[in-house]
Amino acid sequence: MRPPSVERLSRQVEEALGSAGTSRSGPLVRAAARRVIESQRRAGGLSDTTAESAALETADLETADLVAADLETADLETADLETADLVAADLETADLVAATLAELERVSPARRVINATGVLLHTNLGRAPLALEQLSDPGSSAVGYSNLEFDLNTGRRGARSVGLEASLCALTGAESALVVNNNAAAVLLAVSGLAAGREVVVSRGELVEIGGSFRIPDVITQGGARLVEVGTTNRTHVADYRGALGDDCAALLSVHRSNFEIVGFTSGVSCGQLAEVARLGGVPLVVDLGGGLLDSRCGWIDRSPPAWLADEPAVRQTLAAGADLVTFSADKLLGGPQGGIILGSRRLVDRLRRHPLARALRLDPLRAELLQRTVDSYLGGTACSDIPLWRMATIPTEELAERADRILDQLEDGGEGAPHGAPECSVVEIAGTIGAGAAPGSAIPGVGIQLETSGATSADGILRRLRSMSSPVVGVVGQDCVRLHLRTVDPEDDRALVGALRHVTSGQ
Description:
This protein has 19 helices and 17 strands. The chain is an alpha/beta fold. The strands form five sheets. It has a seven-stranded mixed β-sheet with strand order 4-12-11-10-9-5-8, sandwiched between helices. A four-stranded antiparallel β-sheet has the order 13-14-17-16. A two-stranded parallel sheet has the order 1-15. A hairpin with a 3-residue loop joins strand 6 (209-210) and strand 7. Helix 2 runs antiparallel to helix 3 (48-56) and helix 2 (26-43) crosses helix 4. The two termini are 39 Å apart.
């Protein structure tokens, strides 16, 4: 008997989804079914004849009845398909249904999750979290029309993001500012706008690669400039930069090694020293800070700067040391939405603003509004309470310990005792980190919940069940355990976390 057509397979998948308590629209299901069939044909899992039949024929097959292990979660990726009851005309049809369900889960829209990893700026979980109040104000300029590029005084076209850029200058002391869609775009624009067709000098120890195979040498090449490497991986001196200055040199580029450390026999050149070399050579110094710590004094925190930020370079101090341009991310230590910020010399920023790439890389109105709110929190002295990143980063460990105790108390009060073999929970002291390439190697003291594994329950199994919840919980693996860091869990999510723990420890 021939396998089902895409249409028949789609209907079977839709009915399977319905039995699991969720649904997907017909076009999405059909598209997923086609991708599965084509993928299996390319991999040799289906013969050309079989694949053609699956795509074109409409055999009269009995509908597959999929009963997922965790109906209430509708997490199709982690459902225990081995326990599902698949009644189909043949095994190949059942396999296609299961594969299509998995494909639908793979391409499902982004969902809000509970970050219990202890990584404050988790790149895979969206980096800096945004506050609900930032997204729900009906008076936001992102709702309806706005004077995005309209001067209310003259009644004529105005400059885009002029208010945001003025606020950034007031906050950092920079002469001028320009916002683009991320820091990679900021670096690309700086290189292309200042050095296309000429040379950019970079230390070999700063030719970094960040996530997604984004490499500084590639950005320089894409920007139309020629890379000139100086120094060695572990040691670069002032004389190395001086020796690279020439008629074709357009800029010195300093890149913060934000996602790794070089220790031992090392030496580098300070920003002040680089600025002096650039001045003598008549070229600008561009500094890619990446992380975007605004001020090393952290004046928005009502106590001394945290120890884990001791070695993180800051925007204000870098500008004061003589950098002509500074670039950094808006969604890292600034705590805002995704964006890239360029600060510095008015002459150079205006030059970049006129570059054709500036329009292609500009920030959209919604994120511009969110970034404005973030900057306003710093200017108003409320960043530590308004911005989720700093709210979480500054929670005292004593408060985290109290929350952990309450969570375990609620877990014990609401249950009938864990069945044999279920993971046991306890409160532990654990260290988190800032993440997103900022302050590499630093540790932030914290407290969390530890779930001990047993012969019957693996760490991977616990993590899968936590991710299968309607509010997915993302934790980390420890030594024979799973750990849930409370520093990165919003207190508003503690109730959902209790429910997830009850689900895991009950053995249901």
